[in-house]
Protein 1
Amino acid sequence: MTRPSISSKPDQAETLHQRIRSDIEKKILSGAWPPGHRIPFEHELRAEYGCSRMTVNKVLSRLAEIGLLDRRRRAGSFVSRPRVQSAVLEIPDIKAEISRRGQEYRYELISRRRRRATREDRALLVVESGTDVLMLTCRHFAGREPFAFEERRLNLAAVPTAADVDFSREPPGTWLLGHVPWTEAEHRIMSLNAGNTYAAPLSITPETACLQVERRTWRERESITHVRQVFPGNLYYLSASFAPAQN
């Protein structure tokens, strides 16, 4: 028996909208629905969730806007292939970098907290008040030596599946690169002394020169993550190659 539609109540309709979107995103971001996979037709989703055509259409339209779905007239909706803009600086996978150096990689999750966006979260992630944010702090090691201290914010409205990931086992940067398509990135790089904030987690003196990299990524107009990574200056450098624009 088909469940009665609940879309006539705005608060319940919005909750159902979020549930449908979350279910579809989880299947895409987990790889259960790979790129090119046709998702169920609108009428199949309506029957599954007992909702109106408008609710399903709103969900699919939003997922198409942020680049997760390609909607094709009469053919249906398909999981998009990642469309990534070229960046002068690539987004590195610290785990892979250390392994390429021939060193043993180790990772330590220091803290994990889910919260409503604070003023600082809203400024760094560019999200609205009330947005759920996952705040992570962690350390990366090359052999026995601390290689980087990381503070990362994840926008759970954009990546709801991150709330269920065990980041004590997998670094957040590695997981994001493997599961979450992005379309734009912004880097901010500066030098600084470790100070009292970073000296202890990096096992260095407060006067030690460090390199700080801040990065923010988006999928279309939706912010995904902001990360701040601090490296002892003698352990890390950034390089990029590019060619002049062709007229």
Protein 2
Amino acid sequence: MPERPTLLYRLYCGLTSLVEPLAWRTIQKKLQAADVSVARQRERLGHASAPRPDGQLIWFHAASVGESLSVLSLIKRLGDRLPEAHFLITSGTPTSAALIEKRLPTRARHQYPPLDTGGPVKRFLNHWQPNAGIFVESEIWPRLIVESARRGVPLALLNARLSEKSVKGWSQRPQTARFILDSFRLFLTQNDRTAGNLIGLGANPDHVQRGTNLKAMSDPLPVDQDVLDGIRKEISGRPVWIASSTHDGEEETVLAAHTRLLKRWPNLLLLLIPRHPDRRDDVAAILKEAGLKASFRMAAEPITETIQVYVADTLGETGTWYALCPIVFLGGSLKEIGGHNPFEPAQAGAAVITGPGYFNFAETFAPLVKSGGAIKVQSAQDLSETVERWLTVESALREAQAAASACVKTQENALDSVLDTLCKRLDLT
């Protein structure tokens, strides 16, 4: 149980209570725009839309899509180990909710989390009464965390990661940082740096352990075989490469590389997967500026012989695209964004290309790059040369694929270790 609240924590509780009506209106508009039902909207106010199951309930809270999906394989394994346990997953975005609903493990359900204010938090905890709470990555909601601990809910921060900005901010408020961190029984960090930062901010060193990046151990992405067969028929043997999870400012580099490659392979197809599909208008403008002819998945446009770029601007189909092609450039890395999970394409049998800015997955990329399962590039020229080599030298591509697959297999035992630690520290029996 945490110590007595600090003045800053009390101020936080007071301020958030004052702005609750405004925050609720803003969130409600976003949920309405995403066609979320009224009953599910009210989950943000702590009004559950489903009954609590009987017996042990283990609660996972994640920030958004990647974090939410990363816990699914853990829940499946935990469900096998604890066959009578039930699971609650909370995440804040409609996108994450939609994807989780499609892949919910047995005995699991999804809800939106309560606003971090008194009434919603109280209603949420009164209804669900979790037997344990597991927060994923850096999703820290002070009131929800402190109130859960006060009620005796054992808490863990899994896949813990703190940005330098967060560390700097919390270090200026050491008493409040220590007060909130005292709520957790366990911190499983992605790396040694985060472990050191948590201890420096006041976390009990006995509660901090170096873990692994949970996203590296996620289940393979689902593949829609009918869609895959249809796309293969449309492209009818054309050479293909993929640029996945690209962000604003990255498509220009990718398209410059593709333009270079088209000089050697005029029928080469680029399958472009923007990280945020709602950027499709921006992507269309960038394609027009580059002088490349494209079709869009969302618009159900065909891939004719003249199409040079196919934009996969949908959600939940990335696994199908990875099954199409063994060459994947992974975005979020040409800019200082932090990168994305390289094990997703590697699990699909692909060799991976990345920019230098993958710091959120530094520990995951390190063995991949060292083994040759992933190649790091800096520019459009580097990118085009790497793709060109893998398109030309089949043995080089096969070696990179094999190296990436081998790195995936090394993660299997790590998940069992995470389970052992969680069960022990959170009294999950």
Protein 3
Amino acid sequence: MGTNNTLAGKVVLITGAARGIGAETARRLSALGAKVALVGLERELLEATAKECGPEAGAWEADVTDWAALEAAAAGVVARYGRIDVVMANAGIAATGFVRSIDPAAFERTIEINLLGVWRTVRVCLPHLIESRGYCLVVSSLAAISHAPGMAAYAASKAGVDAFADSLRAEVRHLGVDVGTAYFSWIATDMVNSADQHPVFGKMRSRLPGPMGRTYQVSDVGKAVVLGMNRRAAAIHVPGWVGGLKLFRGIVNQLSLPVTAMGAKDADQAALDDIKARGTEASRPVGPGGAAAVLSAPPSASRLGRS
């Protein structure tokens, strides 16, 4: 970015920073001279990622659904660095399953982390962003635009994040805070790679046509996010065609319904068979991040089948 780099010296708090998109973004930001504050689960991995980012980076273990933990993390970041200039509300999980058969706790945990976790992160950090006239980036998804069967919890949570950011953007503009929304397609993270191994939904995704079924690299997201933060962008799209698709979201879902419904018919029965064979494991949040989210869930979410 050369002389256009506005991120050097900025304090950037990133949730879901132990792995995947959060970790990739943190590494790129630290290389530009930003002070990255990594917040998330998986303490050892989180701290290892912080070490990769250099001596100015810090790690704070916190579940984004836990108010007290988030408040403590934000306070720790401010105590160390004196301020927060940028927040990236990135933490998220995915649980695959049809509405009539998915484990209810897995569905609700997805909503709680992906949507309420974003709200809680923003609410806790917003006073600091107002003070610094900073930038807030929330992570939505292509799933907020194109609503596929077997992804109701994920799509609903990401569509909620999209709407939340639109309202927030108008609310804080006069306070000097800019708000951006990131929309990513399938990215080669542990979450997506694990979803691809699911006996039902991996097959469904493998049948997606053309670019809709392609998996994109985490490095592509890291580059785009850093560029977007530097510009305080209102929207970040990876790949770029997601931005075009967003303009026609209503038409996309109407036109795709006959095709997706046809594919869902057999998958619906396959999901029922899978649940019969594996129980709640069949719709447990996918990947290592999903497993960490299950372990951090409060006792009331015990139906997630924690062992």
Protein 4
Amino acid sequence: MHDGELGVTDEVAARLIAQRFPELAGLPLRRLRTAATVNTIVRIGDDHVARFPLVGESEERLRAEAAAMVEFADASPVVASVPVGVGAASEEFDSAWSVQTWVAGDPVGPVTHESSDDFARDVVGVVSALRAVPRRGRVFGGRGRGGRLRDHDDWVEHCLGQSTRLVDVGRVRRLWRALRDLPTAGPDVMSHRDLTPFNLLSAGDRLAGVLDTGGFGPADPALDLVAAWHLFDADRRDIVRDGLGADAVAWRRGAAWALQQAMGLVWYYVESNPAMSGLGLSTVGRLLSDEELAALR
């Protein structure tokens, strides 16, 4: 999926895990086929999972992610992974890597729960709990989504240029231009920052777990509203909007962040990760068909 992507064989994974975590040595390993775009995921026995980055990461970065995971898990009303430890880069694998606890649940997709009132309310509960975590003076650090929308103009335009056969580029461009200059939705709040279907797990019609929580930190309060566009139909989006008390500015900024993220998925993963590209297309479709947003273009 990425230039210079790192690979890890089953044999190397087993050896690294046994060396760094001897208490896990000998447990059965199973490489998981997921929509993941950042790590190779290897399940260890029943209770743990190893994450081997596809693009090299430092120990410092993974330890910072581990601290964020602990803070997230303490605040979340549903189960989230907690860190077990970090492995150092070596001759066999040229990146730091990590082991975390396993979270049980069924994979969630862009349409699996789109008409579920309960799932929408569960998402409201998670986002509300995260927002209640004290920032302790922290603010958005400037990396990725969560700051100024206009900082992403060049990226969105690049994505549009790559997507001419995939989406209605003219309509997407007009929508982005209608949303990109919206004022901030208020002070930063604590945010998952990547609340997409593939980072959620379900148990029937309920939210059972949250994954990929190492980015937990301060961001635009509209950022986690992307979940409404990635997951739900119009009626369930209203449940999220009302449950989180999102005013018109916050709601539309959430739509802008969803559009920015979705357009990056649409073309980049069209061949290497069709499920992720499909998520982008689904989200763009919801955004373009929304009556309130259509009136802005």
